[in-house]
Amino acid sequence: MAVLSQSTAAGAEARVPDRFVSALKDAGFAALVTLGLCVPLVTLRTDSEEGGELILVPRLGLTAALCLAIFFARLGYLLLWGKEARAARQPTSRKEAIKTVATPRHSLTTIGLPIALGFAIAYPLLVTVINGGLSEARYWIDLGILVLTYVMLGWGLNIVVGLAGLLDLGYVAFYAIGAYSYAILATTFHISFWVCLPIAGMLAATWGVLLGFPVLRLRGDYLAIVTLAFGEIIRLVLINWVPVTNGGAGIASIPRASFFGLPFNDDDDGFAAFFHLEFSPMHRIVFLFYLILALATLTSVVTTRLRRLPVGRAWEALREDEIACRSLGINTTTTKLSAFATGALFGGLAGSFFAVRQGFVSPESFNFLESAIILAIVVLGGMGSQIGVVIAAAVMIAGPEMLRNLGFLKAIFGENFDPSEYRLLIFGLAMVVMMIWRPRGLVSTREPTVFLKERKSISSDLVKEGHG
Amino acid sequence: MKGETLLRVEHLTMRFGGLVAVNDLSFTAKAGDITALIGPNGAGKTTVFNCITGFYKPSEGRVALAHGGEAAFAAIEEATEKGARTLSVGDGAIHLLERMPDYIVTQHARVARTFQNIRLFSGMTVLENLLVAQHNPLMLASGYSVLGILGFSSYTTRQREAVELAKAWLERIGLTERADDPAGDLPYGAQRRLEIARAMCTKPILLCLDEPAAGLNPRESLELNTLLRDIRDRDETSLLLIEHDMTVVMEISDHVVVLDYGVKIADGSPEQVKNDPKVIGAYLGVEDEEVAAVEAEVEGRA
User: What distance in Å separates residue B106's CA from the closest CA in chain A?
Assistant: First the structure.
């Protein structure tokens, strides 16, 4: 069997250059046709000059851009979805391949996370070198912090939605509880961040259990609506409970995190002085980056371990079939509550981080859109997949930021075109396409938690989404 | 304690609004027996199962299970009056199943069940299915996840034992080769066997099987008979099964209870039941002139 598959792979490799050359030819031809069509239609534009006189404006740049776009689009299509590409991909027995895919030794899941972690550790250094200075790289490090925050939130929600199959539309409530816990404890009682962090997590988990109790009997759509309402209730409480939360004005000047007691300032007892560095406000930003990286890594490690424990298996079993779970003596109530509480715990930790980073919290940061984005990250990444969430968070959060740099589109649509107005449209289209192309998310296969002889990924066809 | 009474169902009645699905049903099942519950479609067999396994709360009646021999039934009235779910009697205990939620029935009273439409965790592997069934002891060993997260070896040892038990069952149902495949990928007959093995991994003293032979071909039916007899003889588990396939029922059961319209119409050995005119009437219908007599009989019972 193994020999057979190797020889097939070798055959496929031999065909690749041929396929590439023919696709190149085809794409070149398509570009030529485009050029032919463009010359009469696009290249010259008539315009009226001030005196009402007609003049011809040459638009060579646009013509070139269109030809190139067609070339690459055709090339990409042929290589990825063309008849030959599909034939090369087609396994001998299609049914077999859909159901169980023997995981290649270096699967995305097994090596994806270490690679992502390595990249994240090197990231501040990388952007510093590229941008030629720490201060110049601030935008990129800030973006990295933002993405990591959402990776952590995505992983937290993944426990509830991806593993236990409970649709939670109000996850941002726990994020808010964590943020306000730190904000209030730090401004009122002057408790240090490192003490507040676990307290905030515990408070969020407690609220997770409190929310869990009344909603456990609900399933599917009903559960989604109740959790949605819970998110809104928390936000309204934050707005209206003015004596404690300061209402819509929010809580400002929240104490910043210190480096285990060393504040990030240019005093003699500050971080820079202690390590004999020249003071830079960027130290704090880099520290925050590594802090959220550590928190996110903690989330991932705990989740991965929980999955291999009985409670994690019970969560997944609950997603697959709740009635069967009960027939096996599993207390589904406590199992659901534990999923809610664990998810909420990580949401609370991320919330604390949010508060310490911003130095300011207000109810406006915790609206439904946040819940929707976090849920979209989980769904887009593939429910239950760790690396999928990382990719989806990077795409969802950094993607719209990258789309700000659409200046080149001005060459096509003219100077009056403001590309940043269209970034959400483009983004929405990309999500729709994504859901058509991979409805079960980027990484849709499920990794078994235990195996006898061989670890085989399980196709998403068999894995259920849960009914709430 | 083979031959002693294990399960006693008394005056069990289940009403859904105006519909009486089970009406004043009483029967017993003996330890070490295969007891079959048969009857035409809609007779209320699955409802009885759901009442025994805690999925339904019966409208009336008592379902008592004895651990450690029928001597435990001596305490049945005491337990009922005290409002207790469980009462220890000497080495054994009496469990009043109608008072327990479904998962407690499996966890404490050790009654496991399978379903008419297979309910496997199709997206999990065969081995994982068998490990989920050992949730409660594993949960305890993992210190309710706390010790497990910290990587204590006590859990690792316990998990290895759980895998060994799963392997033993895979061997018995002939699915060792497919241990790492998703359960939803197995052929139908294998899924039926896996569901039985999964229920057995909870180490039950009473295993309730809801139509285990449904959809099996004759060869698979024969294999199933062998497996069920094997469970009865080798494990400390008695069986209660609902079945339509009469070859299975007549071949393997030691005791048959026949239901029709929620009422027990016969109770005895397979031979007795097979020749009972009421059973024949319920399954095949009766001659026109006998209808009145049968109706009078049924009303008399109700």
Answer: 5
